[in-house]
Amino acid sequence: MDIARPELKRRRRLLRIIYGVAGLITAAVVTVGLSRLKAAAPTVDKTTVWTDTVTRGPMLREVRGIGTLVPETIRVIPAATDGRVEQSLLLPGTPVNAKTVILELSNSELQQSVLDAGFQLKGAEAEYNNLKAQLDNQLMEQRSKAAGVRSEFHQTQLQQDANEQLYKQGLTSEIIWKTSRVKAEELAKQNEIAEKQVDTFAQSIEAQLAVQQAKVDGQRALYELKQHQLDQLHVRSGIDGVLQELAVEVGQQVAPGTILARVAQPARLKAQLKIAETQANDIAIGQKALIDTHNGTVRGHVTRIDPSVQNGTVTVDAALDGTLPPGSRPDLSVEGTIEIERLANVLSTGRPVHGETNSTVGLFKLMDDGSEALRVQVKLGRTSVNRVEILQGLAAGDQVILSDMSAWDNLDRVRLR
């Protein structure tokens, strides 16, 4: 017969309670511990990242851009008048001099207007010559009349002198002497008037001829203009160089101002570079440049900075100071590096993928053993093509990852192997 033992039941219940409480405590501790554990850092292959060491010392600031070689002198030849392209005498690439005819144009109306202007000029010249002859004849008549009056005046004056002597000698009457004196005085006035009439008419001749001469000059200017326009139907290069482009075809009708051709002087080239807008702020006239033609380099200097921005770039012209490498020709693709300034003693490192001037970026700095990298906030200063100035966040000797780490933007550390 079994004997009931209540103390054993109480002991088992107590043990179960103790075990349960202990299990709950253990589970809570484990849960809290796991929640406080840091996530495992991802592993990055060292061979896939680009690192550099922060140094202190001189730093050369440069900007770089691509572009082409273009002639310094380009002559664009427009059509001076309406015309039809009759003949193309040369092909692009042909050397030309200033008088070389490139195209032949035709304009029948212009040819007719030249003939009309020539006839009008001859008519105006004929009218001038006819008027001059008429005026010269009239002047001769005036002078002839004046000469007759002058002769009569002199004769009367002599007669008056003779009568005066006779009157003093009592050989003639007083009335005859006085009459001759009055007549001499009247003829003196007539002679003076005749001389003034001649002078006045001579001056009027100059005025009348000047009016007609103006008509002749106007007709001559019109004729020369038409003749010049006709001559411009023979399209000439205007400068010594090479024909770069023919912009029209035979048979095409062109209007005044239509671009017909371009002539360049290939012996004098310059580099025309496209610089990113964000890098062009510190470029100035006269700064040194190095132009790489992919067949050699040549030094130059900045001569022009375009004030406008197109497609995010600024056009910069660089004159070439040295001799171009063989094979250099217009439109050849080149790369140019412009020296901005030389910094004497700054903290710098290689330029990271995402690092603009005067910006703050997060960079991964390698720890002592190089097996781990921690993200640090770095304030950048002035930038160059390959280097950037460090203002805050790093010290000399620190190693940082410069390659693109955007895949780990949400992490503060990575492991390297």
How is this structure best described in words?
This protein is of the alpha+beta class and 417 residues long. The protein has 3 domains: 46-70 and 268-416, Elongation Factor Tu (Ef-tu), domain 3 (Beta Barrel); 73-107 and 233-264, OB fold (Dihydrolipoamide Acetyltransferase, E2P); 108-231. Helices cover 36% and strands 33% of the residues. Helix 2 (108-169) runs antiparallel to helix 3. The mean pLDDT is 85.
Q: What key attributes describe this structure?
A:
elongated, alpha+beta, OB fold (Dihydrolipoamide Acetyltransferase, E2P), six-stranded antiparallel barrel
Rg (CA only): 52 Å
Q: How far apart, in Å, are the first and last alpha carbons? A: 75 Å
- The level of helicity is 25-40%
Q: What is the CATH level 1 assignment of the largest domain?
A: Mainly Beta
Number of domains: 3
SSE string = HEEEEEEEHHEEEEEEEEEEEEEE
CATH superfamily of the largest domain: Efflux pump adaptor protein, beta barrel domain
User: How many DSSP H or I helices?
Assistant: 3
> How is the largest sheet built, in terms of strand order?
3-12-15-14-13-16
Look at the helices and sheets and give the structural class.
alpha+beta
The CATH topology label of the largest domain is: Elongation Factor Tu (Ef-tu), domain 3
Principal-axes geometry comes out as elongated
How much strand?
25-35%
Q: pLDDT below 50 for ≥5 consecutive residues: which ranges?
A: none
Q: Mind describing the biggest β-sheet? A: 6 strands, antiparallel, barrel
Could you give the count of β-strands? 21
CATH architecture of the largest domain, by name, is: Beta Barrel
Average pLDDT, rounded to a whole number, is 85
